[in-house]
Every structure is written in C-alpha cells, then in structure tokens.
C-alpha cells in the first residue's frame, strides 16, 4: 500500500498553503467581512443625553470613577433611540469572542473539502485502491476538530457563574442518553445503519489479527452490549454539545423568517434549511425510504423504482445538497442575530423607567462580540453531518455513480509485508551516508505501510459504513430535538 504518493503531496501542499495564507486571506474572515453583514454601533453617552434632552455632564465616566462617584448616568427607556449601522470590517472581527478558533476551523474545513474533491477526482481516473485515502483522513479530522470546538464552547457555558447553561447541557445530555439507548435496540429492519454487521466484522477481523501476531489465547474482553453502552455514552456527549446550537438555530430561524417577510422565496429556502435534519432522519428509516423506492407497492405486485446501489448514491447526494443549502443560508441567520440589538432597543422603548447608559452600550456591544460564537453554533453541526457523510462515502466503499457496484470489503486481517534487505557493498562515505538515509526513509515508509495495512485489515469498510451512518443520523437527530424544543421555547414559553 503506497504512502508517498501524489495524495500525500497535495495534502502537505494544502496544509502549507493554509498556514501561509491565513494571515493574508482567510475564508472565515471573508465570510464575516465581505460587506454583506452589518452590525449596530452602541450610542455614546453624549448621544444618549441629547436624546434624553439633558446636558452632557462635563466629567467623563473615568473622572467620576476616580472621584468616587458610583452613580451611573441614566436615561429614560422610552427615548427615540435608533442604532447606527456599519459594515463589519477586519478590525471589528479581531475583538470577537473565540475568533481564532472560528477562523482556524472554518479554514480547515474549506481546505479539507478541497483535498477531498481532489482525491475523488484522483480515484476516478487512477486505480488507487492500495493507497491511503488522504481525503477521508481530512474529513475525519474535521469531524474531530468540530467536536473539540463544540466542547470548548460548552466549557464556556459550564464556567458561567449563573449555572443555567450548565443545567441545560446536562438535561439534554441525559435526554440524549435515553434516546440513544432506545435507538440502539431498534432492529436493522427499521433503521438501516449496519451497526450489527459492522461490529461483527470488527470483532472477527480483530480476532484473526491477534492470532496472526501470536496472541492465540487472547480473547476480546468486550461484548456488543458493552460497545453499545459506550456508544450511547458518546451519543449523550454529542447531544449535550448540540444543545445550545439547536436552541440558537431555532431563534435565528424565527428571526430570519421575520426579517425576510417580503421575500417568499428566501423564506421557503429558510424553512427547507431548517427541516433538512428531518429529511436526513427519514433517509435512514428503511420502511419509508429504501423499501418505498426499491419495493414500491403497486396493487398485488411490487415495483422497483431505483436499485439499492442507486438509493445509496442518492442518499449521499441528498445529504450533501441539504448541507450546502444550510451553508448558503448562513448570512441570513447571522444578520438575523445581529438585528437582535435593534430588536432589544425597540423592546426597551416599550418599558417604563430609566436605564443606565452603560447598560445600553454593553448590551449592544455584547451582541456583536458573540457573533463568531453564534456562527460556530450554526456551522459546526453542518460540518459534522457533511464531513461524516463524506467519510462514509470514502471509507464505506460507496460511489457517487449509481451504476457502480458498491460491495464493502470484509477481508480479514492480512499478513504484514516485510522490508527488502539492502545488500552491503564497497561504497565510499558519501554514498554510504546517502544509502543510510535512503534506508531510513524506506524503513519509515515500510513501518507506516505496515501500520496502515493492519488498521485497514481490522477496520473494514463494513465497519465504517455502520459507524459513520449512525454518526450522521445521530447528529441530525440531536439537531431536530434541540431545534424543535427551541421553537417551542421561543414561540410559546418566551411569549407567556
């Protein structure tokens, strides 16, 4: 199995370009600073005093604090305040919370998509079955980095002094654990993940692998029940990570629909984007999706509308298209979030009493400072579904073309290759040094080849099909649960 191929060269080139181009050009920075999004500036104390009909105090806030005057400047809540709009520029983006994490993850996902598309084109023209699929590795890394980013955001909620966010995450975690345990006991006749066959392939190949390496008496100390319990724990963790992204998605969806009230075609796309996880769930329900298309009832007979291979390709294509639709709707959701500043001001005008000027400035500024957090909460779940689907396609042995046979490999553990010895000869010191270096490179490549061969012999495409199919479905399920609860919360509970 070749390692030092053109795929590795392109992968290293993409990593180098991403590192060198990040300070000069970043897709993540362009997404926020391309002029399509605008923020609201907080009013100064002078503007608030002018609107309140009072004279601006001569002492500044710093002078009052130094003189021991703790009484803040207050203005009536019903003043005629209108926030000034301004396009977001690169300097504004530097003050945003978690901006570096946001920029790195978005850029990595973009380059991972490029590497994946290159590997797909490469595999369509060259028989590279013995090579390591570098594009699949980038997809898996994107999934792991996305989970790490969500973990960082959830840690921020857990460090909050109020503790309300912590309770929400724990509640969704326990709810996800219960739902995952129910889903894992559903038969394959209803939810066709392929986990049973995938785990059976994993255990069988692992047993063969251990026997080939002299561990004939060693037995696997785990069972399928233990693996499913561990998988349910992972599902609970993912459910806790996706709690606030789903709640925020519900709020931005309602605001985006209201913001585009005069554009019905945009509203239709927003509704389709919001309901896309539901479509992902249905695609894995066998009686509704595969059986309806492969064995459609027509009277007393059944008609095959599409073949099983065609359905697998269609399912992957539909999921990718839905993810692209969600990515296309990013700007509308982010602008709807930024409009919360003006929305809060309009709500404040309806209240009686007075409010400190610093509280108005903090509220308006805080909404803008958390823009990258909201963007990550919107994009990371899309990345989880998208790159899990791409990894499912590459590692599961699927094809984008419906006419290609898609039989997953179940080859048991293979015998490890050996390195060809180098015959000694009469060489000078320079030639010996070059030969030693070449031998070291060959030995390193041989060891890496041996490791990847062992990994490929144990983790077969049959296992990857079950694991990534379940991961894709579960992320969509968590989004449906949290976003629907968010719709109920913002539509009914908040209004009451």
From TrEMBL:
Location, primary (coarse class): membrane
Family statement: Belongs to the TMEM161 family.
Protein name per UniProt: Transmembrane protein 161A
Tagged with keyword Translocase: no
Keyword Transmembrane: yes
Membrane-spanning intervals of the chain: 135-155, 167-186, 229-247, 268-285, 367-392, 467-489
Entry-linked Pfam families: Tmemb_161AB (PF10268)
PANTHER family, alphabetized: RE42071P, TRANSMEMBRANE PROTEIN 161A
Topology in the lipid bilayer: Multi-pass membrane protein
Cleavable signal peptide: 1-28
Cellular compartments per GO CC: membrane
Keywords: Glycoprotein, Membrane, Signal, Transmembrane, Transmembrane helix
Species this chain originates from: Eleginops maclovinus
Subcellular location(s) per record: Membrane
InterPro entries reported in the protein's UniProt record: Transmembrane_161A/B (IPR019395)
